[in-house]
Design a protein that fits this description.
This protein is an alpha/beta fold. The protein is about 25% helix and about 25% strand. The chain contains ten helices and 26 strands. A hairpin with a 2-residue loop joins strand 3 and strand 4. Bound molecules: alpha-L-arabinofuranose (AHR).
């Protein structure tokens, strides 16, 4: 047995101990979950579990791409270890090449023989050289390798509409046009499918510091020349400025299929966000509040504005950047946005998905920022080494929710209180899985107190739990399996299925049909 498998076995044992764990009644929170088998909304689009890759720090170079000559095992330049990990969590869609980078990117820099591509400075992220080794062909190859749809972010900030239109034609045309033939000469005969196309990014900020009225006009102009069957995504709010959504919807709704929303969870003021590890209980509580209250309200307000302009809900809402944004890891290049990833990040991801599941009528896509080595990453790399973060494991746990239909559920839980923060101690999302089973995601937010959730369901629930003794438990390159999921089983007691949730834990289970609801 290797050290790695030894620690994995230890984690399973820990999980079994947790399974058996039931805190004494006086020490635990008692919650009730009432589930009906009625749908609470349209299905959870798999794209809600999308991801985001930007030319930023080692998010592409080093994290995904090591080059064909690297000693690190790779397929056509992309790391085999990272590809295998990403395939496992079935990434439905990946957004590229930015972010802010997108509005400073000329797609022509990234085509043709790699050795002849220009070296540009990545002016947005640290002024470091980008030799364009990863361009359109490489990114599309990567997306095919992980089995994801692509969401291309076009440049509306610093290139003319013709450049955006030509990029789309280059990628998608099956004609004999010079652009399609250029693609063929560069090694790709068949056109690619570009399902989603973003018309600029954060037009109110790094995308051009535009007024919403101007951005709406520009969106209409640029979108007019995108003559391929793509889902056109307009740049929306990211600062809690409702006017952006309001004006964009008012002036440009007929020229878009979706509008974006960015919501980052920042555990403190922007100038002192706080470290990813070593935080106190107050930061834990405020962080979770930013999701259950902050993200929830941000989406609800945006949906209300969209409803005003688009009552038939034709235009979708894409939360195409979300996740935790901490202070950069000490000693790292601050422009590279490197941060550790702990149990707290996984809790944020779980609560965020629970929020998305409550808004399936509008939220049809979301992209965590970002996939590798940047912000709330799935994977961290260090040279040839790689680790999976708690957020990766959380995506793995929530896999059965891709394509599931949310069910109406109400939770009656005591409050979790910390300083001025007061939240329901338990958060639940329920759904009917694509295989017909009943799915439950149960989150105990309280870092100190266990909870018992008694339901109106019968049967046996099996799944996995993600938890740890410390709020900032994380995986390191030396100890990559410190926090991993463990098996979890819950049985009915006196005919009612109940769940013992250790403090700060996330449980995802499935109950085979029929999960008979009882009064
Ligand atoms: O994800 C990092 C940056 O955050 C993106 O480039 C930008 O769109 C947002 O401000």
């Amino acid at each position: 047995m290797t050290l790695r498998s030894l620690s994995a076995a230890a984690a399973v044992l820990l999980g079994t101990a947790m399974m058996a764990f039931a805190a004494p009644a006086a020490e635990r929170a008692e919650a009730r979950l009432t589930l009906t088998l009625e749908a609470a909304g349209p299905r959870i689009e798999p794209a809600v579990y999308g991801q985001f890759v930007e030319h930023l720090g080692t998010g592409v170079y080093g994290g995904l791409w090591v080059g064909t000559d690297s000693k690190i095992p790779n397929t056509r330049g992309f790391r085999n270890d990272v590809i295998a990990a990403l395939r496992k969590i079935k990434v439905p869609v990946v957004r590229w090449p930015g972010g802010c980078f997108a509005d400073d990117y000329d797609w022509r820099d990234g085509i043709g023989p790699r050795a002849q591509r220009p070296v540009r400075l990545n002016k947005v992220w640290g002024n470091v050289p980008d030799d364009n080794r990863v361009g359109t062909h490489e990114f599309m190859d990567f997306a095919e390798m992980i089995g994801a749809e692509v969401y291309i972010a076009g440049n509306m900030g610093s290139m003319p509409p013709r450049a955006m239109a030509q990029w789309l034609e280059y990628m998608t045309s099956d004609s004999v046009s010079s652009l399609a033939n250029e693609r063929r000469r560069n090694g790709r005969d068949k056109p690619w499918t570009v399902k989603y196309f973003g018309v600029g990014n954060e037009s109110w900020g790094c995308g051009g510091h535009m007024r919403p009225e101007y951005a709406a006009d520009l969106h209409r102009q640029y979108a007019s020349f995108l003559r391929a069957p793509v889902i056109k995504v307009a740049s929306g709010d990211g600062e809690g400025n409702e006017r952006v959504t309001d004006v964009m919807m008012d002036l440009a709704k007929d020229d878009m299929d979706a509008i974006s929303l960015h919501h980052y969870t920042v555990p403190g003021p922007w100038e002192a966000k706080g470290q990813a590890v070593g935080f106190d209980a107050q930061r834990w509580a405020k962080t979770l509040q930013d999701v259950t209250v902050g993200m929830e309200e941000h989406i609800a307000k945006t949906v209300r504005i969209m409803d005003k302009h688009d009552p038939k809900k034709r235009v979708a809402l894409y939360v195409d950047e979300w996740g935790m944004w901490h202070d950069p890891e000490p000693g790292s290049n601050p422009a590279f946005l490197v941060q550790q990833n702990t149990l707290r990040d996984a809790m944020v991801a779980a609560l965020t998905f629970n929020v998305f599941h409550r808004h399936t009528e509008r939220v049809k896509m979301a992209n965590i920022a970002q996939m590798v080595n940047v912000l709330q990453a799935m994977v961290l790399t260090d040279g040839a080494r790689m680790l999976l973060t708690p957020t990766y494991h959380l995506f793995d746990l929530y896999l059965p929710f891709q394509g599931a239909t949310p069910l109406k559920a109400s939770v009656d839980a005591p409050r979790y209180r910390q300083g001025e923060v007061s939240l329901p101690a338990v958060d639940v999302s329920a759904a009917r899985g694509v295989d017909g089973s009943t799915l439950l995601a149960l989150v105990n937010l309280d870092p100190e107190r266990a909870a018992r959730v008694v339901t109106n369901l019968a049967g046996t629930a099996t799944g996995r739990i993600l938890s740890a003794a410390a709020m900032d438990a994380h995986n390191s390159f030396d100890r990559p399996d410190t926090i991993v999921p463990a098996p979890y089983v819950a049985k009915a007691v006196a005919g009612k299925l109940s769940f013992d949730l250790p403090a700060k834990s996330i449980v995802v289970v499935s109950i085979p049909v029929p999960a008979v609801a009882q009064r």
